Amino acid sequence: xxxxxxxxxxxxxxxxxxxxxxxxxxxxxxxxxxxxxxxxxxxxxxxxxxxxxxxxxxxxxxxxxxxxxxxxxxxxxxxxxxxxxxxxxxxxxxxxxxxxxxxxxxxxxxxxxxxxxxxxxxxxxxxxxxxxxxxxxxxxxxxxxxxxxxxxxxxxxxxxxxxxxxxxxxxxxxxxxxxxxxxxxxxxxxxxxxxxxxxxxxxxxxxxxxxxxxxxxxxxxxxxxxxxxxxxxxxxxxxxxxxxxxxxxxxxxxxxxxxxxxxxxxxxxxxxxxxxxxxxxxxxxxxxxxxxxxxxxxxxxxxxxxxxxxxxxxxxxxxxxxxxxxxxxxxxxxxxxxxxxxxxxxxxxxxxxxxxxxxxxxxxxxxxxxxxxxxxxxxxxxxxxxxxxxxxxxxxxxxxxxxxxxxxxxxxxxxxxxxxxxxxxxxxxxxxxxxxxxxxxxxxxxxxxxxxxxxxxxxxxxxxxxxxxxxxxxxxxxxxxxxxxxxxxxxxxxxxxxxxxxxxxxxxxxxxxxxxxxxxxxxxxxxxxxxxxxxxxxxxxxxxxxxxxxxxxxxxxxx
Length: 559
What we know:
31% of the residues lie in helices and 26% in strands. By secondary structure, the protein is of the alpha+beta class. The chain has 3 domains: 11-111, Tumour Suppressor Smad4 (Sandwich); 113-309, GAF domain (Beta-Lactamase, 2-Layer Sandwich), CATH 3.30.450; 334-555, PPM-type phosphatase domain (Phosphatase 2c, domain 1, 4-Layer Sandwich).
């Protein structure tokens, strides 16, 4: 992790119920906030309702930005939910609970924007004090340009105003903003003339020689009189044809977020575009003019960089909205309020690792005498796994029409293998339990369910099997078992057995058996909660890395 030192005046004051106020300095970035001390958090909160990876504070030009890193109940600044927002002195951060902790942000950075700007410009304050009003008016133009960064103007209006300021400083006839396309080639975006009017961007043919020099050197090219310029620039085709005397090309790069960025030319990041200005009249530039032009380029780059971040945030929000819809659909397809049947009692839970998951379970009647129990785990995580999960659930719902389970499994396997571009397979366990305790089941690469009988725990299945969608020639057969009254089946995904602690040790089936042993009389919900609590205690500082799915079924003789 790269570390930067922030101002000692930037602190977080943490108020937690029943605890004294805590003061924490921001010294490392990104500054991570969340529950638990073993996850790399710089500020560890004790409220179990707060996510382990909750929020981060990032250092940006002139201040700090708070980002929601996935807190389950959201992140709030001064009572308003946010995804990403610049922090101001006195802001209060909360987590969606009235009785939880609050964090108060204190910093003087937001009060010193002009001081930061002047510091960034080096010797301008000393130079400006010795200049006539013309120099001060140009400095004032720059300060006005800086204010555009936090203005509410539409992006093109802010960029147009920035071009107008550049024309005023250089006395150019026209200006052009260029942006890179997907291939990295500069394309025209916005053009202005000296009267502040928009021009068709394609009406300006910029000097490619000047732009190339600026991009290669990663520095501005400012030529006030082309008659005195280098030969290659004097003789450039566009310069000669348009009879230009003044050319300015300012490359715009994303700036580093750290305050101590080192050498500017070495630390500039991604190319955001370029400002180009020209005129048929020559102009003289002082050292102050050149420094102001450089600073103007930095402010223009900041506007473009912020616009890019906003666009990325909008895209992230769009993806989040789509994932929310997918999550709602997936949750709606899971059994809602599992009911008991005359010959069995059942409970289950599914906790996806991400917004949507690749695990699912189901319990449904196929006739008056038989009930289907099912658990599945699609390889991979996220939206792709969730899509295949939904498809499998639809295919297996055909069991209610009297379809033969073996034929259905073999058909699903061939279908997935024939569509190998899907690139995923799934482990499954499917059982049909009769009222007399007869269990017909098919195991497709899934961890064996555990059988709790008379206080002892054993594996229901022995031997290996293949997931569906992995091998085209694989065939599936059904096996049979007779359950006794009060026998309990524990079906689980590998998110249970392979849960890891901070030392990457797995929870393991042996540990699961030990937790269940001797608990044949425990209510099902108690069994479920005991397993979940054990997994949580085991991996609480490591975080959840896979979907956790648990289904508990107890056979009881029908009356």
